[in-house]
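Form 12-C: Joint structure prediction
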Amino acid sequence: MYKASSRKSDLLLLAGFTVAVLLAPFILGPVGAGYPDLLQKFAIFGIFALGFNILFGLTGYLSFGHAAFLGVGSYAAVWTFKLFSMNPILAVIIATVVGGVFAVAIGFISLRRSGIYFSILTLALAQMSYNLAYSVLTPITNGETGLQLAQSDPRILDVAFGRDYGAVLPSSDFFGIHMTGYPGYYFCAALFVLCFFLSMRIFRSPFGMMLRAVKSNQNRMRYTGLNVRPYTLAAFVISGMYAGLAGGLLAVTDPLAGAERMQWTASGEVVLMTILGGAGTLLGPVIGAGVIKYFENIFSAFNEGVLEQIFSFLPEFLQHAMVSISSMFVGEGWHLTLGALFMVIVIFLPGGLMEGFSRIWQRLRRMTKRDDDKPVEPSSVPAE
Amino acid sequence: MSILTVENVNKRFGGLQALSNVNLQVEEGTVHAIIGPNGAGKSTLLNCFVGRLEPDTGSVVFNDVSLLGLKPHQINQVGVSRVFQTPEIFDDMSLLENVTIPALAKRDGSFKLNAWNAVRDENGIRDAAMECLADVELDGKSDELARALSRGDKRRLELAMCLVQEPKLLLLDEPTAGMSRADTNNTIELMKRIAENGMTMVVIEHDMHVVFSLAEKISVLAQGTVIAEDLPDKIKGDPRVQEAYLGGAHL
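Section 2 - Result
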């Protein structure tokens, strides 16, 4: 249900989001996700999903090829490292721009159609990019091996400013701070907060309203004097830039770019993230990205030994039964858990996890109202 | 002065001559009804005004601007708004948003990347939208979703969406189709009020009750040609009209 947001609630949401992102190492520590590599993934794929949501959540155009922009962003960032400088600022700017330019080209072609035809066109173009990266474009992408840094790279700007990395392979560094571990996370986190802020502005703006109108009724839009194509193209390019930035950050935290990043499974993953969290909501995609990356890293690390410990309180034959059943859902089989979770959510909560949260929140509110007349405490769960 | 001039418009669909040599002049500030039996070409003609169809030959001129070759959104931007037979509204948006969108389209043109400011700070736009909702007596429901409205209310919302743009010409395709008698009468009253404010309207309608309570001029279309164009009283008594439209029965 639509509810006008106030400036105050937006500020609260942004402040809450910023605090949560900054304190993530402490908040996520108890659930075993407080280590920098995974936190970086949360932030990077959060950005990817935020951008995807601007296209899919607002306009309803389901792109099945967004990983292409992620891959292009990575390649652009690694090339920036190789040619110009190891400074991540320049790399993410170029990755974003290149992602956007690539999105103009793909959007221009695929937005001629809508619905399933649009999805198929984006899928086809992304798979083409993937195959090109693997074969014909090997001079640029280094094919199967993936694009890597080398000691002999020119790095014009670094040389001009007298930066010398000596005999070791350089890693990206932000004015002397290496972009690995926590510094790498906080670099991603700063951009994550910025992206969230921009996404919020778009959601609240007349432009965002027009994008929702695209999803609702294109016919009425046309007869209301609005040209639909530029709106969808702008949304497509913005989300392509978000994806390019995310790809660039992947390269910043680990200076390597491979074609598999562009594969259709990666495109499918961001669709899952967005739907799981709640398409069209501000926070949903971020939560979806977090849940999926968490499952991927935590559940896949479970093995039979861990399971035997968990079920050790049971009699031995039951323990063995439980271990053999649940072992299908962890380790290599974590996709099975994800699939089951996804099905449950789509069937019972079509609006994603955000719908679940807002239902719980409303129920709590009703209960507290009935109990007494105390003013309702503001909560960090927004009424999106 | 005539605001819309249609000359010698022809439109053929395969073997069917949908419109043949249609001429029409809509005077500024009047309500002009187009009536005719099913398949007479009324909707085809309307579609030629708004850019959904392109006539094979002939001209459609609005306020000295030729509408031929223009896209629907361009035609709206020169001041022509349209109400559809089945209300076309933004179902999953609130009533206020439904009216805000056309108001923004009027102010900002057909495309503007206005992504930084918040809609809630657009006080002028909101006031205009609320005023139009009040005009159609829907201001009490401004936060509700449009999909929850009754058929009659959806039609009124669509009218508000057109009115907020202050069009120079309002096209209505069977505005009371599928409505209860009460809703129909409400809609007639509403359209009368709009007409009294000097709005030029072209109404396509089946319901004679609606036509004769509103129209100041009537064109009768049969088999793609205008067989009569006159004042309502004259049309009522025209034997050709009765023959074509009512199969000889008397009104």
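Section 3 - Comments
Residues 181-196 of chain B form the longest helix (16 residues). The longest strand of chain B covers residues 2-13.
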